[in-house]
Amino acid sequence: MRMKKQWLLLSLLVPSLATAHDLDCEVSVNEQSDLVVREYPATLTFRQVMRNIHPTLPSTLQQATDPLLEPLGWSFTPPPPVTIPVNDSLTYEFTVTVESLEDCARIGQVPPSESVEFTDTLQIGWDQGMATCSARVQCVPADTFVCDDTIYVSSSAGTNTELMTLDPVTLATTPVSSTTEFGYDAMGLSHIDGYLYAISNRNLSGDPIPHVVRVDRAGNIEDLGGLPELAGQEWIVGTIMEDGSYVIGSFLGSHWLRLNTSTLEILGQGTLPTTTPTAWATNPLDNKIYGYQSFLARMSVFDPYTGVLTVFGPVLGNVGIQPCSCAFQQDGTYLLYCYTSDPTLDALFEVDLINGGATLLGSTTSLAAGDLASCAFPPTEGAAPAVRPAGYYMTHEAALERCLAPGPVKLGLLPAIVTKEDALRLLWSSPAFTLGGEQRSEEQATRHALARQTLTGVCNQRLFGGTPELQRLLLDASTTLGRTQTLSRLERHLGAANGRGLDVALPFSLRSRATPSHALEQLQPRSSP
């Protein structure tokens, strides 16, 4: 770890509404308030700005503390008290080099995990008060997949494979990566290390034996090599068990193998008593593999630890005798993606594993899909919640209804949000004007904007569990009696915290089509809070 520090003195001609000796502060890391580190070594530059926001008098910084950086050599030089003139600011920069994910955990003073997250908080004080400001750092393994409810689908022909994401609501696909060297199938996405494992039945290695490959989020493919046990078979299905082992099945011989993904050790193998399912995936609720027996149009369950396979349930006539792929969501929802009698269309079904039956969710242009994969088991540590910004709640009424089911959302000095209509009115109305067209004062507009982010934050806490940072900001928002500038800063930080889950897929139960027109129809042209 290498460190350096330096002082910079900036002149900021920013007008202020302050009426007493006051200071404000801001912390950023590499010029961002929320930094995600994916490559190592990484240089983190913590930039801390203290501003005098009094309009006419100098303000004196009496103390400054940073518990996170102090053990690394951070110190204020010269030590407080330090007087900052009117319209001036003092900036301090402190640089740390993060050598690895483990080093990130050490610097952040948190336990090592697959995803390390910490917050740097600066506290400053003066004669008449104090202020805190912070920035967040998240360190993740380089180019690994985020373990959430994202569904991945492959389209493979020869030595070419395209990997895409599949939206189970709209059935829209988004390209992730492609290769012309490895035609791979039998995908399994590991919640242990964040890599996608697959079998390349056809590739340019020159080896006739199928190879095990490991794919990262950037599309880089590591050829882990072939195994004698893979020879002479075409491996079409794959999944990851709760212990991280990789289970694959072949098409013609009905063979199956369970592999250690780190060593490629064979942990189990055998032959199925019937044809191999054309789709299988591990159920996170019972750690068993559920598959679709295409030649029977029925479901099966397979336990690779005992080798027992059981066909069960009714014939799924609306799915039919078609090749399929499947994936589980983390709540146990089972999705089946199949060819149809129309060669130009594919269909997505949700299968009820308890009562039987398949519900058609939609059809889309055929992808010549090879396989589906998802991260069915949530990671035990470091999982980021799928929090959403205000725009999500503006257009997803079902989410608002679920948010308000436990009770009203209190907004401090403003009326509580009781009904969905109350929530939509707050989210859609302008901070500057009431729905009746009256202009709000600057303080009223700021409180309205803060109320919007507060409602969004409470819904994020109720639906997704939120984050410690979000909980702290919501507490500050509910108790503050500060001036317009303080309210505005809170609103800005809450907005940033509410938007930090956009890279995480929504749980299947909260995915629905946006209905902005319907939401607007429910608003009545009356004054809003």
UniProtKB/TrEMBL annotation:
It comes from the Bacteria. Residues 1-20 form the signal peptide. Keywords: Signal. InterPro entries: DUF6923 (IPR054215), Quino_amine_DH_bsu (IPR011044). Residues 155-315 form the DUF6923 domain. SUPFAM superfamilies: YVTN repeat-like/Quinoprotein amine dehydrogenase. The keyword Signal applies. This is DUF6923 domain-containing protein.
